[in-house]
Amino acid sequence: MYGLVNKGLQDFVTSKVGKEGWNKIREKAEVSEQTFVSMLPYPDEITYKLAIAAAETLGVSLEAALEGFGEYWILFTADEGYGDLVKMCGNNVGEFLSNMNNLHSRIRLTHPALIPPKIICTDQKEHSLILHYYSNRPGLTSMMIGLVKGLGKRFETPATIRSIKSKKDGHDHDEFEVTY
Amino acid sequence: MIKTLNIEKSTLEKITAFYFLFDSKQVIVEASQAIKKACPKIDSHQTVSNLFQIVVSESMPDNVLIPEEMIIIKYKANGFKFKGQVILLPSESYTIFVGSPVVEHLEELTAKGISLSDFCIHDTLFDYLMLVHTTEQALIESSHFEKELTTKTEQEKYGPAGIPSESPFPILRIDFNGYLNYFNAAAMPIVYVWNCQKGSLVPPLEQEVIQTVLKTNEIQRQEILSSNQIFLLEFVFNKKSQSIDVFGMDITEKRAAERLALEQRMQLISTNRLSEIGKMAAEIMHEIGTPLAIITSYSNQIQEIVKEELSNLPVIIDMAQSIEKSALRISSVMQGMRRLAREGKKDPFISTSLQLIINETIALCRQKIKNHEISLKTTVISDQLLIECRPSQISQVLINLINNACDAVETLNMKWIEIDIKEKEEHIEISVIDSGAGIPQSYRSNLFDQFFTTKEVGKGTGLGLGISRTLIMEHGGTLTLDETSLNTRFVILLPKNKSKSSSIQVAA
Question: Which of A104, B66, B359, B414 has the CA that lies 20 to 30 A from B284?
Fold first, then answer.
């Protein structure tokens, strides 16, 4: 994953446990990098190790930690100088989610090592849609759930996300009903 | 459906996102969703000239030709520009303008509420803006890292609050005339050594350093010893305060560690020397034993002859000469042993006959060479060829090389060792060559590392070549393997006069 994701995770965890707490988590995860460069790709293993160590320190499950991070991610990227990029993605939850594939494909031009998830929106209505989430990375579905919740906060509208189909049940992707 | 074009609006918007249609009277009849976001009043059936101003270009110089088809229009209400072309439709009743926003940053679009979904999939304007945005972000991040690094460096020098008085490192400020203007608490030991106080002149040596900094505008470094600490001082020109700032660092532990490393190295040299003495002891006993036997035997015979045949003087003289020769041989061996047994590191560099060193060294190795039936050849040189050296250390190196050569050739059919000496203008080249076929390529890179050995367990300490090179380097010389030689050839290059000669530079 690109360094920006790890930076986001660091920012998220630091907001909960402070700098000292983050350093302890980093030591626990045996991650030597003290700082991450946004545009540099890092092995996925680093992100996973940090997320696992953070969940243990925060006393929550890994799923809960990743969901919290997903929610934080939208706010973080906006603060980190990517605000206009986030704005370009749309003016409401539905438009934003529908544009994510488009955005990811364009980001790949400047970030060639990016392996984004595939997000397809169907059955779009004024305040709801069905979200199809395809990802080869294990365990990041929780992050997607958090991300939708974060979008609700960003657009100041209560957003709910309900699982319809899950990869855990043998489906090839996760499917959610999103209302906003 | 856009009747004038006979095409669905949604389809047209997938082809071009920013367009508007106008009739022969220039009245706008249709506009895309995206252009409406940038130009909110475009839908009010106004004329093109009321809404837009046609600008050739405000930024392009006059000598740049713009294709006839290309125009730049500016929306009068907010100054938003589009670059595009006007196409007369086949019916000639309507004309269409298609174009792209003239923007340099994403925020110019987001400010108008234009989003990613307003762009056609094939439109690369958004990609270009992304690239610009990403580059800017990378620069911001890089500047952030730079700032962080500067802060960290400053903190290391001035303490966490950036205040010199809180710094754990000595900081002093001296004006260009050499007067001490400021020093913090950590600099007290330095001020004590300088024997000065605030407002007084720093010692002459430091004044000279200051003048050097002013002349060269380069940082000057100086080491200073206080009662129990060693400081490294950096004299830095401070343009802002028009002074010389001195930053100190306590390097007592560093120097102690270096001293320890040196002592350990000397210990290794000593170990190596003792190891060589041990290995040679048995052979030397034999070397001494033979002439001793001759001396004893001839002494007895002389006594017998004197008793029985007093007149047989020529025989007595002959025997006495053999006794003298044998005694000299023992003396040479003993002399060599004594040299080798010396520590050497504290010996002064003295002018010594190279032939004498070679002879004594060979005397110590002769028995081993003889035992392995190795033929030894040496260049004949003048006794007067002198070299400024520590003889015991040169001898130690030669013994190492000769012993290695013995070990290398002992199993070969052709067994020979040659010590070749060439006198050059300022140097002497001593080569130890053996009948071996050279050192394999894979061993060459770490041949001179300490503890590297190709010998079987128990036979080699691995200290030999590494130590030998160190000893030769201390003489301002080099010890190298001649990789071009067909046989194994180690070359020692030594300055004849160490004190007058600079170190020999050889690529490793």
Answer: B414
Contacts of B133 in chain A (CB under 8 A): 82, 84-85
Going by their DSSP bridges, the two strands B375-378 and B416-423 should be labelled as parallel
CB contact under 8 A, B110 and A102: no
Q: What is the pLDDT along chain B (508 residues), one digit of tens a residue?
A: 555 566 777 788 888 899 998 888 888 988 999 999 999 988 768 888 889 988 765 555 554 545 556 788 899 999 999 988 888 777 667 888 889 999 988 889 999 989 888 888 888 888 888 888 888 888 888 878 877 777 776 666 666 556 777 778 889 999 999 999 999 888 999 999 999 889 999 999 999 999 999 998 888 988 888 878 889 999 988 888 889 999 888 888 888 887 777 767 666 666 666 666 666 665 666 667 667 777 777 777 777 777 666 667 777 777 777 777 777 777 766 666 666 655 566 678 888 899 888 888 888 788 788 888 899 998 888 888 888 988 888 888 898 899 889 888 988 888 999 999 998 888 899 999 999 888 877 777 667 765 455 555 445 444 578 778 888 888 889 999 988 888 899 999 999 887 655 444 443 3
Burial string for B223-239 (b: 16+ CB within 10 Å, else e) reads: ebebeebbbebebebee
- CB atoms B134 and A39 under 8 Å: yes
Round to whole Å and give the CA distance between B475 and B348. Answer: 11
CB-CB: which of B110, B127, B145 is closest to A84? B110
List, in sequence order, every residue forming a beta bridge with A29; answer none if it has no partner.
Answer: none
User: Which member of B115, B127, B137 has the closest CB to residue A106?
Assistant: B127
**Euclidean distance between CA atoms B502 and B508, whole angstroms:** 17
- Does residue A103 belong to the interface with chain B, where contact is any CB pair within 8 Å? yes
| Residue B30 to residue B507: CA distance in whole angstroms | 79
Instruction: Say which residue the tokens 């990098």 belong to.
Output: A33
Number of H helices, E strands in chain B: 13, 18
Residue B465 C-beta-side C-alpha neighbours within 13 Å: 24
A157 and B CB contact within 8 Å: no
Cβ separation of B110 and A87 shorter than 8 Å? yes
Instruction: DSSP for A23-76, please give it.
Output: HHHHHHTT---SS--TTSB--HHHHHHHHHHHHHHHTS-HHHHHHHHHHHHHHH
CA-to-CA distance for B456 and B323, rounded, in angstroms?
A: 41
Give the three-state DSSP class for B324. Answer: helix
Question: Does residue B121 sit at the A interface (CB-CB below 8 Å)?
Answer: yes
- Give the ipTM: 0.85
Which of A38, A88, A109 has the CB atom closest to B109's CB atom? A88
Strand, helix or coil for residue A176: strand
B138 and chain A: CB distance < 8 Å anywhere? yes
CB-based contact A81 B105, cutoff 8 Å: no
pTM higher than 0.80, yes or no? no
> Cβ–Cβ contacts within 10 Å for residue A172, how many?
8
Contact at CB, A85 and B130, closer than 8 angstroms: yes
Nearest to A81 among B126, B131, B137 (CB): B137
Q: Tell me the C-alpha distance between A85 and A96, whole Å.
A: 11
Q: CA-nearest residue of chain A to B126?
A: A106
Determine the residue of chain A that is closest to B121 in CA distance.
A102
Chain B nearest C-alpha distance from A170 (Å)? 33
Nearest to B140 among A81, A99, A109 (CB): A81
